[in-house]
Structure formats: C-alpha cells, structure tokens
Input
Amino acid sequence: GRFGGAYTFDGKDDFINLNASGREMLLTPTKGTIEMWVYMPTLPGASGYYIYSDGDFNVGRIFGVDDNANGVCPGAKNQFFADVVTDAGGGTNFIACSGFSATPNQWHHITQTYDGSTESLYVNGILVGTKVYSGNILTSRLSATIGRYGTQSMLYFNGTLDEFAMWNVSLTSEIIAKQAGYGIDKSRYGNNASLM
Output
C-alpha cells in the first residue's frame, strides 16, 4: 500500500460491504469528508469505476472515475469525480470533477468535502473542482460499499485503496494538503474519524 497494508480489488466482483447504511455512516448531514489513496494499474473501460457509494441513484455520496461514456464529467476521459445529493436539490446529483485524467500506475490522494454550502474535490492535496449548493445530504438505508456502485453488481473498482477515511467534519484545505503529503493524522480529530 501507500502506507503499509492496503485493500486490492480485481474489478470483477471484489468489494467491501461496510455493514452500515449511508444514514448510519453520516453523523452530520450538513458536513463531512471522505478521503483515500487510490492506485489503478489500468484506467476504466466502457463504464468507469465506482470507488465508494453509500446510496443508489439519487441519494447519498459517491466517489469514482468516469470514462466519459456516461457523461458524468465533460471533457477529458477518466476524471475523478465526487457526487453529493442534498434535499435542497430535490434529488439532484451535484458532481464535482477533477478536470483532468487520472494517471495509471500512480498513487493519487483524493478527498471530497461538504460544508453545508459547497462540495469540494481535491486530488493530491489540490482543490480541483467545486459545486455550490446547500441542504442536508440525502441518505439511504442501503449498505455503504467500497469497490462498486452501491448494491448494484456493476462498475467494480480495479486497483488498490489505502487509508480510506470518513470524517464528520469538513476538513480544511490546509489539513487535506498535509495529509496528502504524509498520510492521515487521525489524532487531529479524535473520534470524528473512521479509518480503514
């Protein structure tokens, strides 16, 4: 892994069921952070990769890599994207895209934050995309998963994940930049983090 051990997914049927719904994972519906290190030996084919999902369709939060076939991110293929759905949007997906293609065979630190008014996407500690909106994050009773799109047996992730973490606070850009440099400092927020 990037720092010690890690989880590797084969892109066919590997995933982690977190045995908790998106509703249970999200302690503060107006703020939160998800971050992780991602390594992909190859970039997605026809459909893209979904790295994390705590809902299906128009609920929850999603992290992934889009191949542009689904029209998630305009422009370059294989962009990182983060998606949040809030009650203010009436089930609308608010998607922040990196604006550039991911690089295979290289570790990327990716982070999504939401502070109640803005969703932000960071790659390697740098802010690369934002979406401005408000409201509570809509949550699902479906189990949150790492490595595929929700409960759907599709869009499996092919690669390795390290230091996957969820926070019930919106981390600052300064902290994200530091953690992209030397790893996640869980002690900084005590019980406000879940780290794998």
Q: What stands out?
A: The CA atoms of residues 111 and 122 lie 5 Å apart. DSSP finds two helices and 13 strands in the chain. The first strand starts at residue 7 and ends at 10. Helices lie at 22-25, 173-182.
